[in-house]
Amino acid sequence: MHFLRFFTTLLIIVIFCAALVFMYENQYETAQVRLGSFTTDEVPIFFIILGAFLVGVIFTSIIGIIEGTKLRVGNARLKRKTKKLQSELDALRNLPLTGPVEEHGLTAAAGTDEDSAL
User: Fold this and answer.
1) pTM, full prediction
2) What angle do CA 28, 32, 36 make, to 5 degrees?
3) What does the pLDDT look like over 7-49, one tens digit per residue?
4) How does 40-55 read in b/e, with b if 16+ C-beta sit within 10 Å?
5) C-alpha angle with apex 31: 36 to 28, nearest 5 degrees?
6) Phi and psi of 99, rounded to 5°?
7) Contact predicate 47/29, CB 8 Å
8) SS3 (DSSP) at 26
9) How far is CA 62 from CA 58, 92, 116, in A?
10) What's the maximum distance between 2 C-alpha atoms anywhere in the chain?
């Protein structure tokens, strides 16, 4: 587990350093962004790439939050169902094994046809 944490930290540091080198190397490269009638002035390319990355992170985070909420709601529903089924099972386990079946609200007529055939 410690190796995975170390590897993840190392990977983040390498990606961060690569991004810094990329920004330093391209600090004078500029481009103009046009979205419909909206046009910006000359903007450094690394700002455009950084902005696109941040927009992707935001959208991915929103999707992750929605999916996580769906999973939590589904888990809560399944826990309620499991609790209900467990209480039903506990009630069935507490029924006595001997005695007439009619006392417990069950009908004995269901098994009479098969018993008479034997």
Assistant:
1) 0.56
2) 165
3) 999 999 999 899 889 888 888 889 988 888 888 889 888 888 8
4) eeeeeebbbeeeeeee
5) 160
6) 110, 170
7) no
8) coil
9) 6, 45, 65
10) 96
Q: Residue 33, Cβ neighbours under 10 Å: how many?
A: 13
Q: pLDDT per residue over 82-95, tens digit each?
A: 999 999 999 888 88
H or E segment at 85?
Answer: helix 45-93
Question: Which of the four pLDDT bands, split at 50, 70 and 90, describes residue 65?
Answer: very high
Length of the chain: 118
Alpha-carbon distance of 17 to 102, in angstroms, equals 78
